[in-house]
Amino acid sequence: MFMPMAVRLTNPGEYESAGASKRRHGRVVCDGVAFRAGKRHGFVVDLSASGARVSVAGERVASDSVLDCTFTTGEDDVKVRARVVWCREEGGRRQLGLEFVDLTEDLKRELMSLLRTAMSQHTMGKSA
Q: Mind listing the domains of the chain with CATH numbers?
């Protein structure tokens, strides 16, 4: 069962120190979008057209590892491949910075549809 969503738009680099952001796209912060990659389960912290930040429990993940990922709102699932750009511990969980690889136009549309679903669930106060 998912928690009610909290979604807000952010600006590139909002979470990074000045000059540290290498983001190509703005991102959407979303609570309630689940993440799975193999045995790793967690949730999406924020999502953009080119990548995501996710929070997972478990062991450290090496940078440059490529993961087969599934993002879900409970209604929609999107499967993408992503390269781990960075991994760090925050609050007892692993935070992973992911960059999508081999992203087709169809997958981009699916990701944008997932974001719209997440935002509409939040707007309507609906839990997935």
A: 7-124 (2.40.10.220)
